[in-house]
Amino acid sequence: MQQTIEQFFKDYEKRFAEGLAGKADVTATTAAFADCFIEASPRGVICGKNDDTFRASISKGYDFYKSIGTSRMKIEHLTVTALDDLHYMVKVRWQSYYLKDERELLIEFDVTYFLQQQQEQLKIFAYVTGDEQQLLKERGVIS
Fold it and tell me: What is the rounded CA–CA span in Å between residue 26 and residue 50?
């Protein structure tokens, strides 16, 4: 299962790169998520639905990242913890690169994802993230 999960996130990373290049595969991105999912962050706990609103937010998200100079996102490493035969917790260390004042800036952060295996497919049903906006402010990417 380790290799399957690693491939799942390699594909996720690839889709992010495609999104930044203006070639977002919204269908494949939404296919990575369960019908409903939970985000936990400093903004609180948000219940999301894999619907038209979510699909529209994907392109908007890529537009935002491009607007602040995001040039790429790379997985530094991931740690998989099996919770049982169908559920996994995956801590992903992301490296995000930004073009700021004609130089490249690296910011690293962690996101913990919770996956469920459904009919031979993995689906994200929850994720926990830190305060991305504050981190971007502290590093001078946004004001």
Answer: 11
